[in-house]
Specification:
The chain has 754 residues and is of the alpha+beta class. It is 19% helix and 33% strand.
Amino acid sequence: MVSKKHKRVKILAVILVIVLIAAIISGVFIYLGSQPERIVSGNHVHSQPKPATKGVVDAKNDYVQVAESDNYILYYYEPRFSIKLENKQTGAILESTVSDEKNDGKSNADWTGAMQSGITLGLIEKTTKTSDKLNLNTAKNTITTWYTDNGIYAEVTFTDYGITLGVEVSLEGDQLVVRVPDESIQEENENVWIYTLCVFQYFGYTYLDEQDGYMLIPDGNGALIYLDDKEGRYASGFTTQIYGTDVGITDLVPGSTLWDDYDTVVDSNTVLAPVFGMAHTEDQQAYLAVVESGDERCTIEAQPNGARVDYNRCFARFLERDVYSQPLSNSATASTTPTVELERLRSDLTVRYLLLSGDEADYMGMAKAYRNYLLDNGLISRQNLSYNTRVDVLGSEREAFLMGTTAVPMTTVEQLRDIYASLRREGVTNVLSVYRGWQDGGLYDTPIAKYKADSSIGGTSDLTKAILEEAEQGNTIYLYNDALSVNTKTNSSTYNVMKKLNKRTFEKDVHGQVYDSFYYLMPKNAGEGLAELIASMKQDNIKNMALDGITNNLFSYSFKGNYYSRTETMDMFVDSVEETSNGMNMILETPNQYLWKYASAMLDMPLDSSDYLYVDEEVPFLSLVLKGIVPTYSDYVNFEANKTENFLKMVESGMYPSFYVTAEDSSKLIYTNSNNLYSLEIENYRATIAQYDRELRALAELVGTSTISDHEILDNGLVKVTYENGVRIYVNYTNSSLTGDGVTVDAMSYKVGE
């Protein structure tokens, strides 16, 4: 017989079990109730959209508001992973996909699918690369969206391919940030990988000439592609990899040469800044897009209408993986097989759109926004802007002699000091010089192991004395150092040279008279060599270096069976420059953006674009950004065909001039690797250097440390540049006099406004 006590215990236990079960069931319902309802539509399985907080822009496509700032409202349509950005003051809208009513119906299913999808992927299937094969309209997918405080986070899965990625879209004041976190990318099919990835490649698109405006491309100093009707003239547009070709993967295309010695084709410009822009001048809205992460493996594209479709669009295309040619044997003529990279890009993929409206919705507004972005994020710092005319000097070269080489001294240390003295007599003071070929072994004896000057120019003690004494006269001598290149005919650094992903040694052909080719150091060794040289220089109190090689080259490579990406190379180069710049005055040759903050000056910056057929107008975009922050120097004036136009471009951009001279006649270089240089003798350029110095120094003193506040091309073609201190400079590139703002400027001339 069960006691009453035991009965009470049993009843309590049953009650507790019932309560526990009820709690669990209730919790399940609460959990289910908190999840977005999922509905199926076409190829998509997507979450029920969150109710709009301020109505719907496009009731047909069910866009809903997901974020709002002082000036913009962000709307989202999940099935196409599409956004619309509305300017609250004007009502103007930027769209990320082509809406049904704006689809002209001329494109095939693949192109239409890509136009109406916020995400497009290129694939590598086994070893075959395809572009934009995957999009949300032609491939089965699932989308799950979470709503954040200032936007959305969506997880997108292409179910038939086992590919998943997450995308964050955030409205941060007057900036739109689109980010694909690295950890969100998953590839579950062992035979299919992501090749390229684009998010919102039609953001801000226009159809034919429906909108006045242009696209800004980072070619050279800057260029514009108008949004007018191109009438199908161009099959493609601007497609260029940021920071240049990855020579660790892609074989360099042989240049065109004359008699195997002289290059006959000038290379196109390398993209130094990871930016692009779109301006709708009629609606007074624009953006400048900055590729904030993943830029080391990213291509900037700007496609005018007629290039495959009748829509103008510009965007960033990230390269996740690539295919390279793997030789099947060690033979130089061995056949190859296409091989897929083992690792994809390991980096977040981020594009930040700096939104502009009203009077700021143009390329000048883009330049200001980029300048502020660089300063605010510590990517550049204000430097000494004192004016200096740059006069570089070639010290020693080499020519073949019996079983080796012999020195060809072009400017000894004593002759260098004579050049400065002669320039002083012409009124040219405060000269900046890069002394090339100062090292033991001459110009092409690289890498430079220590501070030791070639005996043919006077030796180390003479050079040290000249550098220190000329500094007291206001002349600054920088020692040139290509920290990347290796000449294996003068150095036994074979084991340190860079090998491509296919394990073949990278070789750069230069078609030289004495040295045919050069190699690259591995990044770690390049950094160590740079540190050793700087330590050696500091022992003699020499602290001025002009750095090249690692400033404008970026590559993947292999070492002992391991593969290293451009991301890792970039990080090592940044670390090397950061560590060695302490206590050194470094000027950098054509540096990529990630090194700008270490440059006290930038050399050989482009004044022109690459002159592509589809470019409608050149603008000095980089100069508009950098002027008043860090001094920039042009390419050598000596080798410019149209010196008057080149001079006017320096006036317009605020860039400083550069000359390359020698004391000896350039005919002595005929049997050296520098035989492509001509007309270098200082006697031929002393008067020109003095003229440039007088005029450009006077302009520099007028503008002081001011940045450029406005850049306009008036209706008659006259260029007007306004500085923040009020100085106005008018430049006339035409063959007749022009008048603007009451100022008349003679043909091919300039004038400072009253």
